[in-house]
Amino acid sequence: MAKMKVMSVVGARPNFMKVAPIVSTIRQHNFWKSTCAHGKSTAEECPRIEHVLVHTGQHYDKLMSDSFFADLKLPEPDIHLGVGSGSHAAQTAEIMRKFEPVLVQERPDVLVLVGDVNSSLACALVACKVSFDSKGSRPLIAHVEAGLRSFDRSMPEEINRIITDQLSDLLFVTEESGIRNLAQEGVRAEKVHFVGNTMIDSLLACKEKAQVSTILDDLGLRIARGDNGSGHHVVPYALLTLHRPSNVDHRDTFLNIMEGLEELVKEVPVVFPAHPRTQKRITEFGLEGKFEWSLVRHEAAGIGAVRRCGAIRITEPLGYLDFLCLMSKATLVVTDSGGIQEETTCLGVPCVTVRENTERPVTIAVGTNILAGVTKEGIRAAIRGQLTSKPTARAPELWDGRSAERILDAIIREVQARRAVSNGTAAAACGRVGPTNETGSGAHRRGEQARIP
Ligand code: UD1
User: Fold this and answer.
1) How far is CA 439 from CA 26, 361, 388, 434, 444, in A?
2) Domain that holds residue 72
Protein backbone atom coordinates (compact mmCIF):
# COMPACT_ATOMS: atom_id res chain seq x y z
CA MET A 1 0.00 0.00 0.00
CA ALA A 2 1.31 3.44 -0.84
CA LYS A 3 2.08 5.84 1.96
CA MET A 4 -0.76 6.56 4.31
CA LYS A 5 -1.50 9.92 5.89
CA VAL A 6 -3.03 10.31 9.34
CA MET A 7 -4.02 13.67 10.81
CA SER A 8 -4.71 14.00 14.55
CA VAL A 9 -6.36 16.97 16.19
CA VAL A 10 -5.73 18.28 19.70
CA GLY A 11 -7.30 21.37 21.20
CA ALA A 12 -7.88 21.19 24.92
CA ARG A 13 -5.87 19.85 27.84
CA PRO A 14 -7.41 16.35 28.09
CA ASN A 15 -6.68 15.72 24.40
CA PHE A 16 -2.91 15.72 24.73
CA MET A 17 -2.58 12.53 26.80
CA LYS A 18 -5.09 10.72 24.54
CA VAL A 19 -3.21 11.53 21.33
CA ALA A 20 0.39 11.09 22.60
CA PRO A 21 0.36 7.25 22.53
CA ILE A 22 -1.06 7.25 19.00
CA VAL A 23 1.71 9.57 17.78
CA SER A 24 4.33 7.44 19.51
CA THR A 25 2.91 4.20 18.06
CA ILE A 26 3.01 5.69 14.55
CA ARG A 27 6.64 6.69 15.16
CA GLN A 28 7.50 3.13 16.29
CA HIS A 29 5.67 1.69 13.31
CA ASN A 30 7.71 3.80 10.88
CA PHE A 31 10.95 3.05 12.72
CA TRP A 32 10.31 -0.66 12.68
CA LYS A 33 9.31 -0.53 9.04
CA SER A 34 12.48 1.32 8.04
CA THR A 35 14.90 -0.78 10.10
CA CYS A 36 13.45 -4.26 10.59
CA ALA A 37 11.12 -5.14 7.76
CA HIS A 38 13.91 -6.89 5.76
CA GLY A 39 11.60 -7.98 3.04
CA LYS A 40 9.18 -9.65 5.45
CA SER A 41 6.47 -7.32 4.34
CA THR A 42 5.75 -5.35 1.25
CA ALA A 43 4.70 -1.73 1.09
CA GLU A 44 1.28 -3.18 0.35
CA GLU A 45 1.09 -4.78 3.78
CA CYS A 46 3.08 -2.26 5.75
CA PRO A 47 2.58 1.32 4.66
CA ARG A 48 4.75 4.15 5.92
CA ILE A 49 2.55 6.56 7.84
CA GLU A 50 2.89 10.30 7.53
CA HIS A 51 1.44 11.98 10.59
CA VAL A 52 0.20 15.56 10.81
CA LEU A 53 -0.63 17.05 14.22
CA VAL A 54 -3.08 19.94 14.29
CA HIS A 55 -3.62 22.09 17.43
CA THR A 56 -6.80 24.14 17.28
CA GLY A 57 -5.65 26.45 20.10
CA GLN A 58 -8.84 25.93 22.15
CA HIS A 59 -6.47 25.88 25.12
CA TYR A 60 -3.62 28.32 24.69
CA ASP A 61 -2.11 29.13 28.12
CA LYS A 62 1.35 27.68 28.62
CA LEU A 63 0.12 25.76 31.68
CA MET A 64 -2.94 24.40 29.85
CA SER A 65 -1.12 23.34 26.70
CA ASP A 66 2.63 23.81 26.09
CA SER A 67 3.85 22.06 29.24
CA PHE A 68 1.94 18.91 28.22
CA PHE A 69 3.84 18.65 24.94
CA ALA A 70 7.13 18.50 26.83
CA ASP A 71 5.89 16.08 29.52
CA LEU A 72 4.31 13.71 27.01
CA LYS A 73 7.09 14.06 24.43
CA LEU A 74 4.56 15.16 21.86
CA PRO A 75 6.13 16.79 18.80
CA GLU A 76 5.32 20.45 18.19
CA PRO A 77 2.05 20.73 16.25
CA ASP A 78 2.57 20.86 12.49
CA ILE A 79 -0.33 23.27 12.18
CA HIS A 80 -1.70 25.63 14.84
CA LEU A 81 -5.11 27.20 14.22
CA GLY A 82 -4.81 29.70 17.10
CA VAL A 83 -8.54 29.76 17.77
CA GLY A 84 -8.67 30.60 21.51
CA SER A 85 -11.72 31.08 23.72
CA GLY A 86 -15.28 32.09 22.86
CA SER A 87 -18.87 31.00 23.32
CA HIS A 88 -19.55 27.40 22.24
CA ALA A 89 -20.98 28.58 18.93
CA ALA A 90 -18.19 31.07 18.24
CA GLN A 91 -15.42 28.66 19.22
CA THR A 92 -16.88 25.72 17.26
CA ALA A 93 -17.50 27.89 14.19
CA GLU A 94 -14.03 29.42 14.29
CA ILE A 95 -12.39 25.99 14.51
CA MET A 96 -14.49 24.80 11.55
CA ARG A 97 -13.65 27.88 9.48
CA LYS A 98 -9.92 27.54 10.11
CA PHE A 99 -9.77 23.74 9.90
CA GLU A 100 -11.48 23.28 6.53
CA PRO A 101 -8.69 24.72 4.33
CA VAL A 102 -6.09 22.78 6.32
CA LEU A 103 -7.96 19.53 5.73
CA VAL A 104 -8.40 20.24 2.02
CA GLN A 105 -4.71 21.13 1.69
CA GLU A 106 -3.42 18.08 3.59
CA ARG A 107 -5.91 15.47 2.32
CA PRO A 108 -5.27 12.84 5.01
CA ASP A 109 -6.55 9.28 4.66
CA VAL A 110 -7.67 9.31 8.26
CA LEU A 111 -8.63 12.04 10.72
CA VAL A 112 -8.17 11.02 14.36
CA LEU A 113 -10.32 12.88 16.89
CA VAL A 114 -10.17 12.25 20.62
CA GLY A 115 -12.57 12.85 23.49
CA ASP A 116 -15.55 15.18 23.71
CA VAL A 117 -14.29 18.75 23.47
CA ASN A 118 -15.52 21.40 21.05
CA SER A 119 -12.43 20.90 18.86
CA SER A 120 -13.36 17.25 18.21
CA LEU A 121 -16.94 18.07 17.28
CA ALA A 122 -15.93 20.98 15.02
CA CYS A 123 -13.38 18.93 13.06
CA ALA A 124 -15.79 15.98 12.68
CA LEU A 125 -18.39 18.31 11.19
CA VAL A 126 -15.86 19.65 8.68
CA ALA A 127 -14.46 16.24 7.71
CA CYS A 128 -17.79 14.55 7.10
CA LYS A 129 -18.82 17.17 4.53
CA VAL A 130 -15.49 17.85 2.84
CA SER A 131 -14.86 16.65 -0.69
CA PHE A 132 -11.30 16.13 -1.93
CA ASP A 133 -12.22 15.33 -5.53
CA SER A 134 -15.04 14.87 -7.99
CA LYS A 135 -15.83 11.45 -6.48
CA GLY A 136 -16.50 13.12 -3.15
CA SER A 137 -13.59 11.42 -1.32
CA ARG A 138 -13.09 12.45 2.26
CA PRO A 139 -10.96 11.16 5.15
CA LEU A 140 -12.07 8.31 7.37
CA ILE A 141 -13.10 9.82 10.68
CA ALA A 142 -11.78 7.89 13.69
CA HIS A 143 -13.15 8.81 17.11
CA VAL A 144 -11.07 7.74 20.09
CA GLU A 145 -13.10 7.44 23.33
CA ALA A 146 -16.37 6.82 21.52
CA GLY A 147 -19.63 5.68 23.09
CA LEU A 148 -19.39 7.30 26.54
CA ARG A 149 -22.75 8.72 27.64
CA SER A 150 -23.82 10.65 30.74
CA PHE A 151 -27.41 10.83 29.37
CA ASP A 152 -27.34 14.47 30.45
CA ARG A 153 -27.79 16.69 27.43
CA SER A 154 -27.23 19.85 29.47
CA MET A 155 -23.50 18.93 29.35
CA PRO A 156 -21.88 20.42 26.24
CA GLU A 157 -19.59 17.39 26.12
CA GLU A 158 -22.58 15.01 25.84
CA ILE A 159 -23.74 16.79 22.69
CA ASN A 160 -20.18 16.68 21.33
CA ARG A 161 -19.95 12.92 22.03
CA ILE A 162 -23.26 12.01 20.41
CA ILE A 163 -22.65 13.99 17.23
CA THR A 164 -18.98 13.07 16.84
CA ASP A 165 -19.90 9.39 17.17
CA GLN A 166 -22.68 9.67 14.61
CA LEU A 167 -20.27 11.24 12.11
CA SER A 168 -17.40 8.80 12.64
CA ASP A 169 -16.42 5.80 10.52
CA LEU A 170 -14.26 4.11 13.15
CA LEU A 171 -15.36 4.24 16.77
CA PHE A 172 -12.76 3.28 19.38
CA VAL A 173 -14.38 2.40 22.67
CA THR A 174 -12.74 2.47 26.11
CA GLU A 175 -15.24 0.50 28.18
CA GLU A 176 -18.12 -1.90 27.60
CA SER A 177 -20.85 0.66 28.31
CA GLY A 178 -19.70 2.42 25.13
CA ILE A 179 -20.44 -0.68 23.04
CA ARG A 180 -23.99 -0.85 24.40
CA ASN A 181 -24.62 2.89 24.02
CA LEU A 182 -23.52 2.93 20.39
CA ALA A 183 -25.64 -0.12 19.57
CA GLN A 184 -28.66 1.62 21.12
CA GLU A 185 -28.02 4.67 18.95
CA GLY A 186 -27.99 2.53 15.83
CA VAL A 187 -24.25 2.69 15.09
CA ARG A 188 -23.30 -0.28 12.91
CA ALA A 189 -21.41 -2.97 14.84
CA GLU A 190 -18.58 -3.24 12.32
CA LYS A 191 -17.57 0.37 12.93
CA VAL A 192 -17.07 -0.20 16.66
CA HIS A 193 -13.77 -1.42 18.13
CA PHE A 194 -13.26 -2.05 21.83
CA VAL A 195 -9.59 -1.13 22.25
CA GLY A 196 -9.09 0.18 25.81
CA ASN A 197 -8.04 3.65 26.85
CA THR A 198 -5.21 5.69 25.31
CA MET A 199 -5.24 8.09 28.27
CA ILE A 200 -4.30 5.08 30.39
CA ASP A 201 -1.56 4.20 27.85
CA SER A 202 -0.06 7.61 28.70
CA LEU A 203 -0.52 7.12 32.42
CA LEU A 204 1.20 3.73 32.41
CA ALA A 205 4.02 5.06 30.22
CA CYS A 206 4.65 8.05 32.50
CA LYS A 207 3.87 6.65 35.98
CA GLU A 208 7.48 5.91 36.92
CA LYS A 209 8.82 9.11 35.43
CA ALA A 210 6.24 11.10 37.42
CA GLN A 211 7.71 9.86 40.69
CA VAL A 212 10.80 12.04 40.21
CA SER A 213 8.61 15.16 40.23
CA THR A 214 9.47 17.51 43.13
CA ILE A 215 5.86 18.63 43.52
CA LEU A 216 5.36 16.89 46.89
CA ASP A 217 8.44 18.63 48.30
CA ASP A 218 7.45 21.96 46.74
CA LEU A 219 4.08 21.72 48.49
CA GLY A 220 5.59 20.54 51.80
CA LEU A 221 3.75 17.21 51.54
CA ARG A 222 6.85 15.01 51.72
CA ILE A 223 8.75 15.31 54.97
CA ALA A 224 11.89 13.78 56.43
CA ARG A 225 11.51 11.02 58.99
CA GLY A 226 13.91 9.14 61.26
CA ASP A 227 16.61 10.50 63.55
CA ASN A 228 19.09 11.21 60.79
CA GLY A 229 16.42 12.50 58.44
CA SER A 230 17.46 9.96 55.81
CA GLY A 231 13.95 8.68 54.96
CA HIS A 232 10.87 10.54 53.80
CA HIS A 233 7.20 10.05 54.13
CA VAL A 234 4.26 11.61 52.36
CA VAL A 235 1.68 13.23 54.63
CA PRO A 236 -1.96 12.34 53.94
CA TYR A 237 -3.55 14.94 51.63
CA ALA A 238 -6.47 15.32 49.25
CA LEU A 239 -6.32 16.56 45.67
CA LEU A 240 -9.19 18.69 44.33
CA THR A 241 -10.11 19.76 40.79
CA LEU A 242 -13.27 21.66 39.79
CA HIS A 243 -13.85 23.31 36.45
CA ARG A 244 -17.26 22.31 35.06
CA PRO A 245 -19.35 25.38 34.25
CA SER A 246 -22.30 23.77 36.07
CA ASN A 247 -20.21 23.63 39.28
CA VAL A 248 -18.20 26.84 39.19
CA ASP A 249 -20.15 29.37 37.11
CA HIS A 250 -22.84 30.02 39.76
CA ARG A 251 -21.81 31.50 43.08
CA ASP A 252 -24.31 29.55 45.21
CA THR A 253 -23.44 26.20 43.65
CA PHE A 254 -19.72 26.87 44.02
CA LEU A 255 -20.16 27.97 47.65
CA ASN A 256 -22.26 24.91 48.39
CA ILE A 257 -19.48 22.65 47.08
CA MET A 258 -16.94 24.54 49.20
CA GLU A 259 -19.13 23.91 52.28
CA GLY A 260 -19.26 20.22 51.39
CA LEU A 261 -15.45 20.22 51.55
CA GLU A 262 -15.12 21.96 54.94
CA GLU A 263 -14.77 18.78 57.04
CA LEU A 264 -12.11 17.45 54.67
CA VAL A 265 -10.16 20.71 54.78
CA LYS A 266 -10.01 20.46 58.60
CA GLU A 267 -8.73 16.88 58.38
CA VAL A 268 -6.00 16.98 55.72
CA PRO A 269 -4.31 19.53 53.44
CA VAL A 270 -6.37 19.95 50.27
CA VAL A 271 -4.40 20.88 47.15
CA PHE A 272 -6.39 22.52 44.35
CA PRO A 273 -4.73 23.08 40.95
CA ALA A 274 -7.32 25.47 39.53
CA HIS A 275 -8.42 25.78 35.90
CA PRO A 276 -8.31 29.40 34.57
CA ARG A 277 -12.14 29.45 34.45
CA THR A 278 -12.31 28.53 38.16
CA GLN A 279 -9.67 31.10 39.10
CA LYS A 280 -11.70 33.80 37.34
CA ARG A 281 -14.88 32.77 39.16
CA ILE A 282 -13.13 32.82 42.56
CA THR A 283 -12.15 36.44 41.96
CA GLU A 284 -15.52 37.42 40.47
CA PHE A 285 -17.44 35.87 43.39
CA GLY A 286 -15.10 37.37 46.01
CA LEU A 287 -14.17 33.93 47.36
CA GLU A 288 -10.40 34.54 47.62
CA GLY A 289 -10.60 34.32 51.44
CA LYS A 290 -11.44 30.62 51.23
CA PHE A 291 -8.13 29.82 49.55
CA GLU A 292 -4.43 30.21 50.13
CA TRP A 293 -2.13 30.48 47.14
CA SER A 294 0.53 27.76 47.16
CA LEU A 295 3.34 27.14 44.78
CA VAL A 296 3.41 30.55 43.21
CA ARG A 297 6.16 30.24 40.64
CA HIS A 298 7.86 33.63 40.52
CA GLU A 299 9.96 34.15 37.42
CA ALA A 300 12.94 35.34 39.47
CA ALA A 301 12.43 33.98 42.96
CA GLY A 302 11.46 30.39 42.23
CA ILE A 303 8.69 28.78 44.26
CA GLY A 304 7.00 30.33 47.26
CA ALA A 305 4.29 28.80 49.42
CA VAL A 306 2.03 30.71 51.77
CA ARG A 307 0.44 28.64 54.51
CA ARG A 308 -2.77 29.47 56.30
CA CYS A 309 -4.78 26.99 58.36
CA GLY A 310 -8.21 25.83 57.26
CA ALA A 311 -7.95 27.01 53.68
CA ILE A 312 -7.82 25.09 50.44
CA ARG A 313 -4.34 25.34 48.92
CA ILE A 314 -4.81 26.60 45.42
CA THR A 315 -2.13 26.37 42.69
CA GLU A 316 -1.90 27.24 39.01
CA PRO A 317 -2.83 24.36 36.66
CA LEU A 318 -0.06 21.76 36.92
CA GLY A 319 1.88 19.93 34.24
CA TYR A 320 1.07 16.30 33.45
CA LEU A 321 3.90 14.67 35.40
CA ASP A 322 3.46 16.86 38.51
CA PHE A 323 -0.27 16.20 38.52
CA LEU A 324 0.20 12.46 38.00
CA CYS A 325 2.64 12.35 40.91
CA LEU A 326 0.18 14.23 43.16
CA MET A 327 -2.73 12.02 42.09
CA SER A 328 -0.84 8.76 42.62
CA LYS A 329 0.10 9.59 46.23
CA ALA A 330 -3.16 11.27 47.29
CA THR A 331 -5.30 9.82 50.08
CA LEU A 332 -8.38 11.01 48.24
CA VAL A 333 -9.20 12.83 44.99
CA VAL A 334 -12.29 15.05 44.71
CA THR A 335 -13.07 16.08 41.14
CA ASP A 336 -15.63 16.91 38.47
CA SER A 337 -13.33 15.84 35.62
CA GLY A 338 -14.08 12.85 33.41
CA GLY A 339 -10.49 11.77 32.82
CA ILE A 340 -9.47 11.94 36.49
CA GLN A 341 -12.19 9.43 37.38
CA GLU A 342 -10.46 6.99 35.01
CA GLU A 343 -6.91 7.80 36.09
CA THR A 344 -7.73 7.27 39.79
CA THR A 345 -9.38 3.96 38.88
CA CYS A 346 -6.19 2.80 37.23
CA LEU A 347 -4.09 4.01 40.20
CA GLY A 348 -6.45 2.52 42.82
CA VAL A 349 -6.89 5.93 44.50
CA PRO A 350 -10.32 6.69 46.05
CA CYS A 351 -12.21 9.31 44.08
CA VAL A 352 -15.29 11.40 44.89
CA THR A 353 -16.96 12.82 41.79
CA VAL A 354 -18.87 16.06 42.35
CA ARG A 355 -21.50 15.43 39.69
CA GLU A 356 -24.95 13.88 39.41
CA ASN A 357 -23.87 11.44 36.71
CA THR A 358 -20.88 9.94 35.00
CA GLU A 359 -20.33 8.83 31.42
CA ARG A 360 -17.65 6.45 32.74
CA PRO A 361 -19.61 3.86 34.75
CA VAL A 362 -16.74 1.38 34.80
CA THR A 363 -15.00 3.64 37.35
CA ILE A 364 -17.93 3.06 39.73
CA ALA A 365 -18.16 -0.66 38.97
CA VAL A 366 -14.46 -1.16 39.75
CA GLY A 367 -15.07 0.50 43.12
CA THR A 368 -12.63 3.44 43.22
CA ASN A 369 -15.13 6.16 42.30
CA ILE A 370 -18.37 7.31 43.87
CA LEU A 371 -20.81 9.93 42.67
CA ALA A 372 -21.44 12.52 45.37
CA GLY A 373 -23.96 14.73 43.57
CA VAL A 374 -23.54 18.46 44.18
CA THR A 375 -25.25 19.03 47.54
CA LYS A 376 -23.00 19.72 50.53
CA GLU A 377 -24.53 16.80 52.43
CA GLY A 378 -23.89 14.42 49.52
CA ILE A 379 -20.30 15.60 49.16
CA ARG A 380 -19.59 15.25 52.90
CA ALA A 381 -21.09 11.75 53.03
CA ALA A 382 -19.17 10.60 49.95
CA ILE A 383 -15.90 11.93 51.35
CA ARG A 384 -16.47 10.24 54.73
CA GLY A 385 -17.26 6.98 52.96
CA GLN A 386 -14.19 7.11 50.72
CA LEU A 387 -11.85 8.03 53.60
CA THR A 388 -12.83 4.88 55.47
CA SER A 389 -12.91 2.47 52.51
CA LYS A 390 -9.95 0.84 50.84
CA PRO A 391 -10.54 0.44 47.13
CA THR A 392 -8.52 -2.17 45.30
CA ALA A 393 -6.75 -1.26 42.08
CA ARG A 394 -8.22 -3.35 39.27
CA ALA A 395 -7.69 -2.09 35.79
CA PRO A 396 -10.80 -2.33 33.61
CA GLU A 397 -10.60 -4.66 30.62
CA LEU A 398 -7.96 -3.66 28.05
CA TRP A 399 -6.65 -0.70 30.10
CA ASP A 400 -3.23 -2.26 29.64
CA GLY A 401 -1.10 0.32 27.84
CA ARG A 402 -1.68 -1.21 24.38
CA SER A 403 -4.75 0.70 23.20
CA ALA A 404 -2.92 2.88 20.67
CA GLU A 405 -1.48 -0.24 19.02
CA ARG A 406 -4.98 -1.68 18.60
CA ILE A 407 -6.18 1.61 17.18
CA LEU A 408 -3.38 1.79 14.62
CA ASP A 409 -3.97 -1.82 13.58
CA ALA A 410 -7.64 -1.10 12.93
CA ILE A 411 -6.89 2.14 11.08
CA ILE A 412 -4.41 0.47 8.74
CA ARG A 413 -6.79 -2.37 8.00
CA GLU A 414 -9.65 0.01 7.29
CA VAL A 415 -7.57 2.16 4.92
CA GLN A 416 -6.36 -0.99 3.13
CA ALA A 417 -9.91 -2.24 2.78
CA ARG A 418 -11.09 1.12 1.49
CA ARG A 419 -8.28 1.34 -1.09
CA ALA A 420 -8.88 -2.25 -2.17
CA VAL A 421 -12.52 -1.45 -2.82
CA SER A 422 -11.68 1.64 -4.83
CA ASN A 423 -9.00 -0.33 -6.81
CA GLY A 424 -11.36 -3.26 -7.27
CA THR A 425 -8.95 -5.67 -5.50
CA ALA A 426 -9.39 -7.83 -2.40
CA ALA A 427 -8.25 -6.22 0.85
CA ALA A 428 -4.98 -7.52 2.22
CA ALA A 429 -5.66 -8.91 5.69
CA CYS A 430 -2.93 -7.02 7.45
CA GLY A 431 -2.66 -4.68 10.37
CA ARG A 432 0.12 -2.57 11.76
CA VAL A 433 3.47 -4.30 11.46
CA GLY A 434 5.94 -3.91 14.28
CA PRO A 435 7.89 -5.80 16.90
CA THR A 436 5.40 -5.14 19.71
CA ASN A 437 2.78 -7.09 17.82
CA GLU A 438 4.75 -10.27 18.08
CA THR A 439 4.45 -10.31 21.85
CA GLY A 440 0.68 -9.98 21.79
CA SER A 441 -1.21 -7.76 24.18
CA GLY A 442 -3.28 -10.08 26.31
CA ALA A 443 -6.97 -10.19 25.66
CA HIS A 444 -6.90 -8.97 22.08
CA ARG A 445 -3.82 -9.55 19.95
CA ARG A 446 -3.01 -7.86 16.69
CA GLY A 447 -5.87 -8.13 14.28
CA GLU A 448 -8.27 -9.23 17.00
CA GLN A 449 -9.89 -6.06 18.23
CA ALA A 450 -13.10 -6.91 19.98
CA ARG A 451 -16.12 -5.80 18.01
CA ILE A 452 -19.64 -5.66 19.22
CA PRO A 453 -21.35 -8.98 18.79
C1 UD1 B 1 -12.85 22.28 27.95
C2 UD1 B 1 -13.77 21.14 27.54
C3 UD1 B 1 -14.00 20.22 28.75
C4 UD1 B 1 -12.69 19.78 29.36
C5 UD1 B 1 -11.87 21.00 29.70
C6 UD1 B 1 -10.54 20.65 30.29
C7 UD1 B 1 -15.43 21.72 25.84
C8 UD1 B 1 -16.88 21.96 25.62
N9 UD1 B 1 -15.06 21.62 27.13
O10 UD1 B 1 -13.55 23.05 28.92
O11 UD1 B 1 -14.71 19.08 28.32
O12 UD1 B 1 -12.95 19.03 30.52
O13 UD1 B 1 -11.66 21.75 28.49
O14 UD1 B 1 -9.88 21.78 30.70
O15 UD1 B 1 -14.68 21.62 24.90
N16 UD1 B 1 -9.13 29.53 29.45
C17 UD1 B 1 -7.93 30.17 29.67
N18 UD1 B 1 -6.81 29.63 29.11
C19 UD1 B 1 -6.84 28.51 28.35
C20 UD1 B 1 -8.08 27.89 28.12
C21 UD1 B 1 -9.21 28.41 28.69
O22 UD1 B 1 -7.85 31.18 30.37
O23 UD1 B 1 -5.78 28.07 27.88
C24 UD1 B 1 -10.35 30.09 30.06
C25 UD1 B 1 -11.07 31.09 29.18
O26 UD1 B 1 -11.65 32.04 29.99
C27 UD1 B 1 -12.16 30.26 28.56
C28 UD1 B 1 -12.49 29.28 29.68
O29 UD1 B 1 -11.24 29.04 30.34
O30 UD1 B 1 -13.23 31.03 28.16
C31 UD1 B 1 -13.07 28.00 29.22
O32 UD1 B 1 -12.26 27.39 28.22
P33 UD1 B 1 -12.92 26.42 27.13
O34 UD1 B 1 -11.90 25.83 26.26
O35 UD1 B 1 -14.03 27.13 26.48
O36 UD1 B 1 -13.59 25.29 28.00
P37 UD1 B 1 -13.07 24.51 29.29
O38 UD1 B 1 -13.89 24.92 30.45
O39 UD1 B 1 -11.60 24.57 29.44
Assistant:
1) 18, 31, 41, 10, 11
2) 4-197+399-451
For atom 18 of ligand 1, the residue with the nearest CA is 61
Query: What stretch of H or E contains 224?
Result: strand 222-225
Q: Which residues' Cβ are closer than 6 Å to ligand 1?
A: 12-14, 58-61, 64, 85, 116-118, 156-157, 243, 275-277
Which one of 275, 282, 323, 359 would you pick to mutate in the ligand 1 pocket, going by the greatest count of ligand atoms within 8 A of its CB?
275
Count how many domains the chain has: 2
Domain boundary among 358, 388, 418: 388
| For the CA of 276, the nearest atom of ligand 1 | 22
- H/E stretch holding 414 reads helix 403-423
Give the residues across from 272 on adjacent strands: 314
Looking at the structure, tell me whether residues 124 and 46 fall in a common domain. Answer: yes
Q: How far apart are CA 314 and CA 270, in angstroms?
A: 8
Do the domain assignments include residue 128?
A: yes
CA–CA separation, 384 vs 389, rounded Å? 9
> CA-based diameter of the chain, in Å?
78
pLDDT tens digit sequence for 364-390: 999 899 999 999 999 999 999 999 987
Query: Alpha-carbon distance 220 to 234, whole Å?
Result: 9
Q: How far apart are CA 28 and CA 37, in angstroms?
A: 12
- Can you give the pTM of this predicted structure? 0.91
Give residue 423's pLDDT: 83
Proportion of the chain above pLDDT 70, given as a percent: 86
Lowest mean pLDDT among 120-124, 185-189, 283-287, 435-439: 435-439
Looking at the DSSP assignment, which residues form a beta bridge with residue 233?
A: 223
Residues 330 and 429 in one domain: no
Determine the Cα angle at 368 with ends 217 and 182, to 5°.
Answer: 120
Which domain CATH number covers 413? 3.40.50.2000
For residue 436, name the pLDDT band (cuts at 50, 70, 90).
very low
- Are both 243 and 308 inside the same structural domain? yes
Question: Could you report the per-residue pLDDT of 231-270, keeping only the tens digit for each?
Answer: 889 999 999 999 999 999 999 999 999 999 999 999 999 9
Instruction: Examine residue 202 and state whether it is found in any structural domain, yes or no.
Output: no
